[in-house]
Design goal:
- Four copies of one chain form a homotetramer.
- The first copy, chain A, is an alpha+beta fold.
- The first copy, chain A, is 27% helix and 23% strand.
- In chain A, helix 1 crosses helix 4 and helix 1 crosses helix 9.
- The longest helix of chain A is centred in the last third of the chain and has 22 residues.
Amino acid sequence: MSSIYSGAVLRLSVFGQSHAEAVGMTLEGLPAGLSVDLDALQGFLNRRAPGRNNWSTPRKEEDRPEFLCGLKDGKTCGAPLTAIIRNRNTRSGDYEQLRHIPRPGHADYAARLRYGDAWDGAGGGHFSGRLTAPLCIAGGILLQMLEAKGIRADARIRSVAGIEDASPFTESVARKEFPTVSDEAGDEMKKAIAAARAEGDSVGGVIECVITGVPGGLGGPMFDGVENRISQLAFAIPAVKGVEFGSGFQAAEMRGSQNNDAFAVEDGRLVTETNHAGGILGGITTGMPVVFRVAVKPTPSIAQPQKSVNLKTLQPETLCITGRHDPCIVPRAVPVVEAVAALAIADLVLEG
Amino acid sequence: MSSIYSGAVLRLSVFGQSHAEAVGMTLEGLPAGLSVDLDALQGFLNRRAPGRNNWSTPRKEEDRPEFLCGLKDGKTCGAPLTAIIRNRNTRSGDYEQLRHIPRPGHADYAARLRYGDAWDGAGGGHFSGRLTAPLCIAGGILLQMLEAKGIRADARIRSVAGIEDASPFTESVARKEFPTVSDEAGDEMKKAIAAARAEGDSVGGVIECVITGVPGGLGGPMFDGVENRISQLAFAIPAVKGVEFGSGFQAAEMRGSQNNDAFAVEDGRLVTETNHAGGILGGITTGMPVVFRVAVKPTPSIAQPQKSVNLKTLQPETLCITGRHDPCIVPRAVPVVEAVAALAIADLVLEG
Amino acid sequence: MSSIYSGAVLRLSVFGQSHAEAVGMTLEGLPAGLSVDLDALQGFLNRRAPGRNNWSTPRKEEDRPEFLCGLKDGKTCGAPLTAIIRNRNTRSGDYEQLRHIPRPGHADYAARLRYGDAWDGAGGGHFSGRLTAPLCIAGGILLQMLEAKGIRADARIRSVAGIEDASPFTESVARKEFPTVSDEAGDEMKKAIAAARAEGDSVGGVIECVITGVPGGLGGPMFDGVENRISQLAFAIPAVKGVEFGSGFQAAEMRGSQNNDAFAVEDGRLVTETNHAGGILGGITTGMPVVFRVAVKPTPSIAQPQKSVNLKTLQPETLCITGRHDPCIVPRAVPVVEAVAALAIADLVLEG
Amino acid sequence: MSSIYSGAVLRLSVFGQSHAEAVGMTLEGLPAGLSVDLDALQGFLNRRAPGRNNWSTPRKEEDRPEFLCGLKDGKTCGAPLTAIIRNRNTRSGDYEQLRHIPRPGHADYAARLRYGDAWDGAGGGHFSGRLTAPLCIAGGILLQMLEAKGIRADARIRSVAGIEDASPFTESVARKEFPTVSDEAGDEMKKAIAAARAEGDSVGGVIECVITGVPGGLGGPMFDGVENRISQLAFAIPAVKGVEFGSGFQAAEMRGSQNNDAFAVEDGRLVTETNHAGGILGGITTGMPVVFRVAVKPTPSIAQPQKSVNLKTLQPETLCITGRHDPCIVPRAVPVVEAVAALAIADLVLEG
């Protein structure tokens, strides 16, 4: 088990539980002298923060990181960078009844198998989506580093509840409050979310991330290529159940003559006419945009009664979850996807 | 870049190029005293070997491993286990014309960006599907170890060219020569492969792997859970462009009330009534079968003329590939998927 | 560069700078349900803390850790354990004059080569002995875990300024304020320390650590054996310049017939009559006590004027260091040596 | 347990047993396009090979590596580099009597605790000094890479049986057959070796390695600095029981005013007037030569009768070892020390 990501150059340690004193992260391997724009970082974190609109949980957290070390005069100093976010608005009581009755779709049962009674399950403990806040601290800083090199990672909602935003990707989408390219598609999605909420239910979706400006020649074959790294990181986001690159699962239905990206020269630079490969061949970047999508399952916390079992008595139980929850975490997960993309790509870039 | 997989306990080093002296692997971390049934291993390797039927490349390789060390009297002795397969039937001449004209859909261009002119591109070099042979040596041994513990990993063709085998999974499928549950679906797929071949084209597909007997409580949250590990390994298989667990991308279209797996008790043991989670919650096994699928793109080597560019002159070129190739590598990739599943699960089991 | 230790099971991230907001550590891989006695831990930390007697720096720090996560009701909960110590008593002004004039024997010059002007050198920054405080938080917890398994790591001052404490090791020595077996030898050492201090100078010494109760059969050959791990960790302690096991450098002067430890049976258990091997053969524990010694150089901070160079002008400078410093850090380093021993051995024990 | 070294960039897997089919190594992370001079490599390997003179074992092995992959037209191609050496001259019968009677000073007993009866102990198995041959293949290639960058690692015999070669280091020493600076000291050492051999005994010694041309600013604090890495690697050499840097254990007896290396300017370049630090401060290179010494214990295989215990009966046994052995392995270990130095430094240089 590991909450430390060991990249080629970067290492990220994520710590905390939903209802502990704090969540936080330590990032090391950053070049010394890197300027960190704390306001821009806060803006990035706010995109993930809860309680800002009617499709997310009303639990309000400021998500304001306190930097303990690693920065000096606003710049990285070469030492590990540690930042924490205090947990203020915790209501563990909500979770007391759940101690022996695992919530379907949540980590509760699996975690109890692994850690026994000592497990801290309040608010999901270390498995909580709250842990994506420190992931975003790291990601937000790395996005700034990448941006200075002309590399951007932007994500958008590709679908919610089966409603697709089929419009071609545009960079500006990521800065929208509800980041779909087509506002009509976005409105449909919001309706689907509201309908699920009204029925005490939840919905999932697909997030697409496009990374532009990535130099070709990064990565490698076998176990440590670009897809291996991004997928390993993407599954660190709770609720992600699938990852695909370029045409992904659709490529499996295509002919080679369709799926192969023809080479061409554009402005004196070798490009491919299409990008079914998602910018990656043989685990190595080609210089075309890196494109991947993640499948996000519907939030497991729903208000409807659910069938569970009391772990002590092995008797069936009907479970009603009353805490505060998002009917759809897809919008809040968009910056988290950018964060893991930034982590993977920044590590590849620093590795060279 | 790394051709070494570092699991929690197991480490696998895969080496070789398609047209080098040999391909091979070193596996360490195996418990000492483990019996290795070399005949059973050969049977497993034969499922991957080329040249056995009319949907794979006519290149014939015996794929007979030579064990250099790590075994004593048919048992592991605690030292690293190294086995090699000599490359006998290489025709590098086929690839000479390709030195400066990258094949669309192949690693050629990306590899050249990374390694420069020193890259050994003959037969795809270290990027060749041939490297899955040593992966299968490791996987075949680990499958034997797992079987002794009541754990099985069986894969099947779930779809080829969009033709789906929707029948429920059965363990015996994996031993079929063309491993679909429904023979009718299998026949349709073979027709699609033959049609693609006749047109000098290729097709892809989806492989599904089901791992039964996995104890609950293995894995962990964040970066090193079951999904992170399996996906990192699955992308080591050339041509894989997507991975999903349980309901995967379909879960993104479901409601929470549908996708959550209700808990129940069966024979005094906690189970879930459905398995949309694919046996994994919070990155940890639940004791239900671990289920994942990989998307395999159509073989990039096709006989049709393709558009490429001469890297030296930056002039457009029409490329005709004349070597020996599979019109569909999905059938041969089935045991490779079992091999990476075995590697991930064996490592989790040994980690405990 | 890495301030994360990745053992087989345990991972320790150490962060902070001498004059940053805090120093701290994240430890993961601990079994869930482990009781942590915070009072005993504080007792252990106090052995390292400065300002307690006249052979250490007058800088006073409480070294009272705040646990941010990973503990629940006094027990580990399976999630990463993070604790921080706030830095309160910092006087960065002392270090301003040193910005461009590296202190001989310190990391200043090397760190500046590595990190450039962004380096935070105040108090030695991330290179400060202060970082051994979080190392001791981890070590103190692991010593508790080991003690519950009958394993102890006790260190003593073996020599200071060439004055040796040749008396045979006894466990109780580690709890002395000045941990020598022979009080006479200890008094001589204190005199040598006082003499050095009086002359604005400093002295070094050797610390010996004996670990008893270690099961045989832990570790392995080549790169990851017991000696490899302990030495890798021991050099994490600033000022350590040598490590030896068992008879160490003395073994190099012995004959094989002297140095080989004869096997014998004692109380039905295989032992060796001597322990020149320091409890390790082939990188694996034998069941005999693990014994190692580290050489600690004299504190580089001395009050005497020293020759340095101004890095901006490349002109010679005479440097006078006026901060607060230990004339001999050997006594305070004793628990730190126990801490790294605990980290190495606990990891080996958990690996099994 | 691990026979894989994972550096920042380089990874080295060493495999084989003394009496298996082969020993070998896989090295990855080398830049593509690196020329490998196979004749020079053979010359380096010959320095380690047995049977060349009267102070080493009469077992003759050609130690001629076969390269299986990773080289193309004499240059690295970016793929892992694997080379093997076949074991031809094995006489396992010599070791049959030892199956249940562990040899004092050898890994036998510890290995049996770890691996049980399945352990392959013939010739020491995976613990044999023979495994330093593949280590030297890697080291020899890396020394060539370093030499092209103006970096050299040269080792010499510093002492044997307590007889010291106190003469200042000169680069040319490493190429002598018996590499001492002072031939008189060397002759004394040879006499001591001959005397030990005549008495059926063995002697140890100290090897000193000096690495010149190392750029300053490589490495880092805490767990992954230059000393941590070199020591972790040095203990991979069988029989090494101590490592020290610069003045090492002698520094522990010095005053700070003596041990601190004063900074000065020489030819417009910052240097230190002395090099007690061995070229390393704070785990980072200073640009001065990196100097370390390792203590090599006397060969445990001696002809004299020794006390052991039969592991099956737990009865005392008198053991007489009759195989072929070196009375002193120090001379043959000299290139091995250079090899591990090259591995550590090459990794630091590639990491940058």
